[in-house]
Amino acid sequence: MSFQAVKPLLVASCLFALSACGGSDNSNPTTPTSDFNSNLQTSVATAATSAGLTSTNTTDLTDTAYKDSGNTRTTQVAYLQAEATAITANTDLSGFVGYTVSNIQITNCDSNNVCTMTATLTNTDADTTTADITTKVKQGTDGKYRLYGDQLSA
Q1: CATH number at residue 43
Q2: C-alpha distances in angstroms, 36 versus 71, 88, 100, 113, 125?
Q3: What is the pLDDT of residues 110-153, one digit of tens each?
Q4: How far apart are the C-alpha atoms of 101 and 130, rounded to whole Å?
Q5: Is 13 domain-assigned?
Q6: What pLDDT score does 45 carry?
Q7: Which of 134, 131, 132 is nearest to 115 (CA)?
């Protein structure tokens, strides 16, 4: 599986330390940033299973207007469903094992509530590798932060 294909899931799957824009208080566990943090952590923790890949928790982490390098929310959800189906059909396959995300920062929010999110992705499956990630998130009218992507068609 390519990193680009799973980047939204991986980014969406675990936030360790979230520093939000828009006046949210990360010390209160009911704030949107804490919810986003928890949902991302849960998604990454369960990304090795078909249930985790297709959970409402995981799919709700992506804004309906999500677009990243030509992938839309619809194509990402379909990709995750296909992975979940493959895992179910072949027990020798596994999802995304050993991923965590840390050093999360949400900054530079604009008047449309679109912000820049940076993080460090770590994979400890076979050997430890890390990659820095930058993507966009958007705070919806419901107060939740969701992945928004780069909004590019390719």
Answers
A1: 3.10.450
A2: 21, 28, 15, 15, 24
A3: 999 999 988 888 887 778 889 998 889 999 998 889 999 999 98
A4: 9
A5: yes
A6: 72
A7: 134
Q: What is the Cα–Cα distance from 145 to 147, expressed in whole angstroms?
A: 7
Residue 153 inside a domain? The answer is: no
From CA 100, how far away is CA 39, in angstroms rounded?
Answer: 13
Q: Tokens 């179910």 — which residue? A: 88
Residue 152 falls inside a structural domain:
no
154 inside domain: no
* 150, 142 Cβ separation under 8 angstroms: no
pTM attached to this predicted model: 0.74
CA atoms of 150 and 154, how far apart (whole Å):
10
CA 126 vs CA 19, 103, 120, 122, 130: distances in Å: 30, 22, 18, 11, 12
φ and ψ at residue 8, rounded to 5 degrees: -60, -40
Which single residue is written with the structure tokens 């980014």?
A: 11
Print the domain residue range for 119: 3-147
User: In this structure, what DSSP letter does residue 146 have?
Assistant: E
CB contact at 8 A, 117 and 103 = no
Instruction: State the total domains in the chain.
Output: 1
